[in-house]
Amino acid sequence: MLHKFGFSQYESKVYEALASAEQPMDATMIVKHSGVPKAKIYEVISRMVEKGMVLESVSEKKKLYTALPLPLVIEKLTSEFQSDIQELEQHKVQKAVIDDHVWSLKADSSIGSQLKQMMENAERSIRFSAWEDDFHKYLPILLEKQQNGVKVEGVVIGDTPDGLPQIVPMKPSEQHVMLERFRLLIVDDREVVFAGVENDSWQAIKTQSQPFVRVFTDYFHHDLLLAKITGKYNDILLNDEEIMTELLQLKY
Question: What tens digit of pLDDT does each residue of 66-107 get?
């Protein structure tokens, strides 16, 4: 029976020998009655003492051992078994599977639904860049996530929405005719969606591939820094023909 509870054959034999004895025994006597090799006996007894199945005492400089009474063993093993069951019930098995495919998405409604679901599932961080009207579509989710402790950062093409202090506005110049509509969402540094308009229709890619996630995260931070610089030094940049020429070449 002890075998079924994870005790080794030698441990079971030591307990059986002590439990059936009428008086405590020393190691030599346990070897004789249990059949456990002398070379192993002290190691086995030590384990059984550690597990609370055997009690030890010192009498006249000699160590004596006795078994924990069987009713107490039953109570002990039952309690430990119930504790293990509770721990198992509370344990959440998490699959460490990473989908590193790059998926294509089409249709504005499908892309929008995907962005919404990813935002709702965010646990630590949301990085979102989009035009002002797109930001307002997801504003309730972003505000709720921020209130729940999720870090929300972003760049908005237009005016900053209320309640999101970490959103940086970027207001294009009237000369910036090449600027195209886009959406970039990075959630928990784990998953990214980048969407743009091609042939008058929205298309996007979605991936958890870490090289792509890192690239788009760098892209986001560059965009964020550029928005801060152009916002702070707009008058200076407007008068710098070389820099303005480069800025006007940006599509996103």
Answer: 999 988 988 988 888 888 888 877 776 555 566 788 888 888
Q: Find the Cα–Cα–Cα–Cα dihedral 222, 247, 158, 109, rounded to 10°.
A: -70
| pLDDT tens digit sequence for 221-230 | 888 888 788 7
pLDDT band for 252, please (50, 70, 90 cuts).
Answer: very low
